Prior knowledge:
- By secondary structure, the protein is mainly alpha-helical.
- Helix content is 79%, strand content 0%.
- The protein has helices at residues 2-11, 17-47, 50-67, 75-93, 99-116, 129-152, 159-181.
- 19% of the residues are buried.
Amino acid sequence: MKNRMKSYLQTQLNFSSYEAERILYGVQGITTELSKLFILFFITFPLGYADEILVATIVLLSIRCNCGGLHFSHYISCFIFTSIFYSSVILLSACPLPDSFLAFGLFMCSSLFTFIGPITSPMRPRLTPPEVQKYSHRVTLLLLIYSSVLILLESLPYRNLIYWVIVLQIFQLLCAKIARKG
């Protein structure tokens, strides 16, 4: 089927072989991510955690699309990791956090990110220095915005959830950095 889609993109829409491969890679990534989210929503909706999954996904996508993280080569291992990530975020968000702990944790995450930087999938080429700088600036800005909102709005409904998404994403990024170095 992939070959037929690639052929269609090349013959009917005049994409080059490289462009068709990139489009198919993107479509594959989107469909696998959507399928994982659909399964997670199917599981969490009856349990009353669908809102938490939605909020966590929005925050996670905004950060992860710009800084990367751990990547798995099989759907099932990726799904298991994603499930553990979301479960951890939901469980940890139930614990009350003192404001000083939250502020310190956000400062540490931002500082740690400046040390780690963005991490790409091993299946993709490494970023060039200008790309690293561009994505680092984006994530730093996002972390600054999230940190400001979380520190200033103490009554934000999903405050702890957003905090733990940030913390666990930065931890995941650290693990990816360590794994990439071997």
